[in-house]
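Input/output pair, single chain:
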Amino acid sequence: MSKAVLLLVIVLFFILIRILKPSKGRMGERAVSRKLNRLPHYKYKVINNLLINSCGHSTQIDHVVVSQYGVFVIETKNYQGLIYGGYNTDYWTQNIYGKKYELYNPIIQNKGHIKALERLLKDYNAGVFVSIVAFSKRAKLLVNFDEVVYWNKINRLIKSYYQECLSQEDVYQIYSVLLSENKTSRKNTKEHVRSTRKNVKRKKNAISKGYCPICGSTLVLRDGKYGWFYGCQNYPNCKYVHKV
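Output:
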């Protein structure tokens, strides 16, 4: 075998590994899926990797668990390092050995997922939806919010809800609707990623020009308990905040 052919084989081998190896995010979703599948099947209906269209926009949700005790909407994060941020701040911080990176606030991200489900399941009260943000133990959480937990605590948190708010018929109806509306495919997933990137760019552009990316009102510089921040002029109707 010539050196050129050997080099080509090696390059193709590494490309194949890169294609087949799942991303850290996908690995995290699979790990959480395995945990959710341990829930009693007669009580909880699990849907993983749900992609739905809402008002012309696609929304990808890592996991949804439907039960008589609520519809649990789960956002999975496979981060490492120190994780901290405010409940309503636009971004949180990931600190790895002193190097800091921004990540979009997963609580706000999951609220967007729930809004999309509310529009799809408009016959049901908004109170039936429960937000859960689940981090890997690779991360050290410096936040103290009830809906933010480690992966190993997800099932315990779900089971802590024991008040029935949906009938068994409602559970099957919601589960059926979500399965029928699930648009997950390689093509649709790629479209969703492109759309998400455009929305992030549009949001950053609005902030840079001093406008609220949610309602379009002017952002006002304010001094709060945790320092200076930009808040929407339309508060309390719009509670968007952006850390300085």
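Residues 14-23, 185-193 have pLDDT under 50 and may be disordered. The longest strand covers residues 57-67.
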